[in-house]
Amino acid sequence: MHPIFLHYPIQVPTKQIQDQPYVTFADQSYYYFVIPADMSERNALELYTITTHFHQQGWNNVSCPMPNVHNQFLTTIGKEKYMLCYAINDKDKRDEASRLAMFHQSGFTYPYQPSSMNSYGKWKDLWTTKIDQYEALFQQLYQQRPANPFLREFVNMFPYMMGLSENAIQYLHVVEQETQFNESDQPAITFGRYHNQMESSFIWCNHFVYDHPVRDVAEKLRGYMLAEEGLAAPACRDFLREYLTNQQLSVFGWKLLYARLLFPVHLFDFMDQIRSLSSEYPDMEQVMENQAHYEENLRVFFSQLGIDQREINSIQLDWLQNVY
Question: What's the CATH architecture for 123-321?
Answer without folding.
Answer: Alpha-Beta Complex (3.90)
